[in-house]
Structure formats: structure tokens, C-alpha cells
Amino acid sequence: MRKKTEIGHWESDTVIGCNHMGVVVTHVGKASKYLLAGLAKDKTIAEINRVTINIIHGNVD
Fold first, then answer.
1. Domain residue limits at 30
2. Chain segment 39-58, per-residue pLDDT in tens
3. Is the pTM of the predicted complex or chain greater than 0.70?
4. Cβ pair 4, 34 in contact under 8 A
């Protein structure tokens, strides 16, 4: 597996809470190890996209 050393490569994931209550959305820069994370109300693609856009723009709910 190639190591990502170029800025701009991100790995995204979701972490489902206990009893499926709440979702943590994470995005980690592969080279920088910079973490962006936010809380989603559910695991629908619309909600994950909304949270992702908000955290990229620095908006906190």
C-alpha cells in the first residue's frame, strides 16, 4: 500500500453510537493527520453530507 504524503488525500468514516443513537462523522488528512469531526443526527447520506459541509466550512452546530 502506498503511503500518502501529498496534502489533500482524506479518509472518511462514521462511528455509530451506542443503541444507534447519534453518529460521529470523521475526516482525517492522510498526510497531515488533521482531524475534522462532527455529530450527525442519523446515518442518512443527506445528514452525513450536511455535517461534512458544515465542518469543512468551520460551522459548529
1. 10-56
2. 999 999 999 999 999 999 98
3. yes
4. no
